[in-house]
Design goal:
This protein is of the alpha+beta class. Helices cover about 40% and strands about 25% of the residues.
Length: about 220
């Protein structure tokens, strides 16, 4: 929190608005973060096959059943056409790819966790979106093409710090005499920064756990 008097003035209305935004942001973040888990059939080859069979049977039913009770355009023509499309779609749907390129890269690196690393600027090069592949041995920061931007030996991490700066949140990682800074922006900036921090902290050996640090107000 800033020590400048003008930045700490607030009203009941402002506090209510901030609380509402925080609750809404938390709800949306939770939905986005958890929603893929509701579609577990996409990660199971057998479930995907069953889905295709059901889709094909439903399409075939729409084609065959209307023939026994011709009533009008909907049941006589539109329903069979829709059923035919569904039946053909069930045949043409490709087999499920169980392992994505990201999964293959994580397996290649031996990483057990992959989280967003926000933006990282390697030296004087332009800033790039980074993804952190985390293992007990190394932390890899890879760009969108899965090319390495930075490699950090996990056992050598000595400090983790999450701070806010203007409209961004920063995650600082220190190891030996080196430091890397990852910048997060957007409505979920703090949550992604905290998630990356927690993921790195969880990968550290028990004998090397680092207590969370807080930066003094106004620094």
């Amino acid at each position: 929190m800033s020590t400048t008097p003008t930045t700490i003035v607030s009203t009941a209305e402002d506090n209510s608005l901030q609380r509402a935004r925080s609750l809404l942001g938390a709800a949306v973040f939770l939905l986005i973060h958890r929603f893929p888990r509701l579609l577990k059939f996409q990660s199971s080859e057998s479930s995907w096959t069953v889905f295709r069979i059901i889709l094909g049977c439903f399409g075939a039913a729409l084609v065959v059943l209307p023939l026994s009770f011709w009533i009008g355009w909907i049941t006589g023509i539109i329903a069979p056409l829709a059923g035919l499309c569904l039946f053909v779609a069930s045949i043409l749907l490709p087999p499920l790819e169980l392992e994505s390129e990201t999964d293959r890269k994580a397996r290649e690196l031996g990483a057990s966790t992959m989280v967003s690393g926000g933006q990282y600027q390697p030296g004087n090069a332009p800033a790039a979106q980074a993804r952190l592949f985390i293992s007990p041995a190394h932390i890899w920061a890879l760009d969108n093409h899965l090319d390495p931007l930075l490699v950090i030996p996990t056992p050598e991490v000595t400090a983790l710090l999450v701070t806010s700066f203007e409209d961004r949140w920063l995650l600082q990682v220190r190891w030996l005499e080196h430091k890397a800074e990852f910048s997060f922006d957007g409505i979920f900036a703090e949550r992604f920064a905290r998630l990356a921090e927690d993921s790195i902290r969880a990968s550290l050996p028990d004998s090397q756990q680092i207590l969370p640090k807080k930066r003094a107000a106004g620094v």
